[in-house]
Amino acid sequence: MQYSKLEHAVNIFITPVRNHREHLFVSAGLDWLVQNSLKGSTSMKTPGMAVFKQQNVEDFYEVGEVLGSGQFAIVKRCKEKSTGAEYAAKFIKKRQSQASRRGVRREEIEREVDILQQIQHPNIVLLRDVFENRTDVVLILELVSGGELFDFLAQKESLSEEEATQFIKQILDGVQYLHSKGITHFDLKPENIMLLERNVLLPRIKLIDFGLAHKIKAGAEFKNIFGTPEFVAPEIVNYEPLGLEADMWSIGVITYILLSGASPFLGDTKQETLGNISAMNYDFDEELFSNTSELAKSFIRQLLEKDRRKRMTIQDALNHPWIKPLNPRQAMVKRLSVVNLENFRRQYARRRWKLSFRIVALCNHLTRIMKKGHKLPEQDGRDCESDQDEDILKRRPKSRKRSSTS
């Protein structure tokens, strides 16, 4: 899917970058930051924060064609001169002053890269290197060529729950790794679940886009309103303390969509969507879930639990009998239960259309404002982290120490 200039105008900061012709995906994760840097290299490291090499990226990489762009980022194909290996260079425009709202604040980039430099897992995309110059931070990223998981599933002729859980298990494995490090992704959704490559028996999942990820310190209370409304947990909607549980809710929504194509809380407006989440307004429509096992529904219900204290943890999810059958009967149920892919394709296309329609409506609204001679407000580069206008970030994150007498 190619992104238009109109989408850029409405402040859609695209961390994912897609090029439809080549079906490439580029994002940040971590393999490792080169510990033994090339001779003569220098780097800048804020204590406890990310490492940025203060060198010209073109001294080490041949930078080629543009693969995609966002409001404050452009991604180009690049080739490492010393090895010939291909990567993608993501140039993130830095904010030049406190007064400006153009570009991304350096501390925001530091937070994302610092998290990525702690991560090395087969189900998370890899970050190779980080450079910085006067105007940009440049991330050298892995190219992931398999496209979105859900696009891949929509092209399959059949899909059993057993096959579906093989993909869900990979998602859980990646999230378990993050949670073991105290990292919450905060933006898990189908668009951020990619495949390393397609033409293999079981494609490998890659979780991408860590623009909203946070590592919440023990004893700290963290609140924020951000993410993609369709997938945010009730505690985000209600501006309550946040933690690892928010990711588990998102996995519940993702699983619901995977088994039906329909989105459990998606309304006609953002406000309606958030209201549906707060009111727990969802069900298992018989037409969409007639072939779905009770085990699968149980898995979803225990993730879509409004009280985050009662919601399944990542370990609970990995041990759930839908993922890890306790006996041959449960394993047989998974093999015999199938996803209605005709419904999946129809419902998923409807969801995509609805989201695209909202982008067009917003663009039209902004065009009318401009025609009236009003200046569009400049927005924060991290207020919209997604490839849709569905992202919200109305308040700055607040983090404070919990009282020891609570």
UniProtKB/TrEMBL annotation:
Pfam families: Pkinase
Cofactor(s) it depends on: Mg(2+)
Region listing for Disordered, in residue ranges: 374-406
EC number(s) on file: 2.7.11.1
Known catalytic reactions: L-threonyl-[protein] + ATP = O-phospho-L-threonyl-[protein] + ADP + H(+); L-seryl-[protein] + ATP = O-phospho-L-seryl-[protein] + ADP + H(+)
Enzyme class, spelled out: transferase
Annotated Basic residues bias: 395-406
UniProt keyword NAD, yes or no: no
Keyword ATP-binding found: yes
Biological process, per Gene Ontology: apoptotic process; intracellular signal transduction; positive regulation of apoptotic process
Binding site residues for ATP: 94
PROSITE patterns xrefs: PROTEIN_KINASE_ATP (PS00107), PROTEIN_KINASE_DOM (PS50011), PROTEIN_KINASE_ST (PS00108)
Biased composition (Basic and acidic residues): 375-385
Similarity annotation: Belongs to the protein kinase superfamily. CAMK Ser/Thr protein kinase family. DAP kinase subfamily.
Name this protein carries in UniProt: non-specific serine/threonine protein kinase
Record organism: Mola mola (Ocean sunfish)
